[in-house]
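Q: What would this chain look like folded?
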Amino acid sequence: MKKLATVAIVVVLGAQLMALSHPDRHVVLWTGAGVAVVVLLVVRWYLMRDAVAAVDDSRARDPAESLRRWRAKTEILIARADSTRSDWDKYLRPMLARQFELATGQRKAKDPNVFHATAIALFGEELWPWVDPDNVVRGGAEQQPGPGRAVLNDVLQRLERI
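A: My prediction, written as structure tokens:
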């Protein structure tokens, strides 16, 4: 895009310089305007071409493909929930904490006390440690088993109730 903008500016300036060499000065205005219109049309065509190429309607409208992608993501989430504590901390905890912030509108950076109180009210003392973004275990405890599918299910059900 930067190259296209640079070329457009150079073309307009070049046309202006060529028009200045013409004895009739009225030509300068019309030449500059004409070249600017052509450059704007080319830029518009270029941008529209990229926008059309970026959207792949064949996969976006295929419900079976959407269902397959959703199912694959869900299977990965369940596998990570049944895996180690390290996998839970790395993949599920950030996602769940982000979903909690989006669902409640409470940001930890804004007011940590309100954030924690809202979390305890929603999840309770037993589930909040599995969603808490600050409860990541570092060190030798990474190979502990994760909380499992039941905890993931409980957390997701409570998030759905909001």
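Helices lie at 2-20, 26-54, 57-60, 63-81, 85-104, 112-131, 149-160.
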